[in-house]
Design goal:
Layout: H1 3-17, H2 21-29, E1 39-41, E2 48-50, H3 56-63, H4 65-89, H5 95-108, H6 121-131, H7 133-150, H8 154-173, H9 176-205, H10 209-218, H11 221-232
Helix pairs in contact: 1-4, 1-5, 2-3, 2-4, 3-4, 4-5, 4-6, 5-6, 5-9, 6-7, 7-8, 8-9, 9-10
Length: 239
């Protein structure tokens, strides 16, 4: 890799990834509200906590699933389009993998918003649409099956697809660059989740972890879908 090209590609990916469509869309829908001040009530308690990740789920919390879906699609596009352009323009080296990672990093730590962004779900999927579109279908389905049926754990059901990217991309490519990309995606996501992990630990120490976990799931469309699926299948999901 040419270092100058790699730095340029990474910078472009990061700056584009830093665009916060959650803020843009919610500002358009409610100009006088600040998405960072949205609060989630903890079921069965008097507690409320501010949204931590600013992305599609927080947009859906304030304005419904349609707003959340719009933000998610825009967040996917802001990484998918530059990644595709880079792949076509510089096909000899995996610069596009670097750009996709930088876009995800920009979404998590946006330079335009004091480095307070989202968890990275949608940008990761956007990059994968270009890198290996089949993984966008296979990994989430496999993760859902692993969590719901095998381990009966709703956390695995929602996050397992990202972990499964590591063996999946190796199986698909047998390429060290793609393996490194899958590992880096997981590393970035773990870093992005640290603030939420801290909040979960606080509620665990207070004996309110299950209430916090259920409230967190019920606050967004994907979480509500997982809870409904578990109920219909009569699966005792662990939170």
């Amino acid at each position: 890799m040419d270092i100058a090209v790699a730095i340029s590609v990474g910078t472009i990916g990061y700056l584009v990834g830093s665009i916060s469509f959650a803020r843009i869309v919610t500002r358009f829908l409610s100009p006088h509200q600040d998405i960072t001040n949205y609060e989630i009530p903890v079921a069965g308690t008097a507690d409320r906590y501010k949204v931590i990740s600013i992305g599609a789920n927080s947009a859906a919390l304030g304005h419904g699933p349609r707003a959340g879906m719009l933000v998610s699609l825009l967040d996917m596009a802001k990484v998918a389009i530059p990644t595709w352009v880079c792949q076509q323009w510089l096909p000899q080296q995996p610069y596009y993998l670097l750009l996709a990672l930088a876009g995800m990093a920009g979404h998590i730590w946006p330079v335009y918003h004091k480095f307070h962004g989202g968890s990275g779900f949608s940008p990761a999927l956007g990059g994968l649409l270009v890198i290996d579109w089949l993984s966008v279908l296979v990994a989430p389905i496999a993760g859902l099956f692993l969590g719901m049926v095998v381990l009966r754990n709703i956390v695995v059901a929602s996050l397992g697809w990202m972990w499964l990217l590591i063996p999946w991309l190796w199986f698909r490519t047998h390429d060290l660059a793609h393996l490194a990309y899958a590992l880096a995606v997981n590393f970035l996501f773990v870093l992005a989740m640290i603030p939420e992990i801290k909040v979960a630990r606080k509620y665990a120490q207070e004996g309110k972890l299950e209430a916090y976990g259920r409230s967190s799931l019920e606050s967004n469309p994907m979480g509500r879908g997982l809870l409904k699926m578990a109920a219909r299948l009569k699966i005792p999901i662990k939170l």
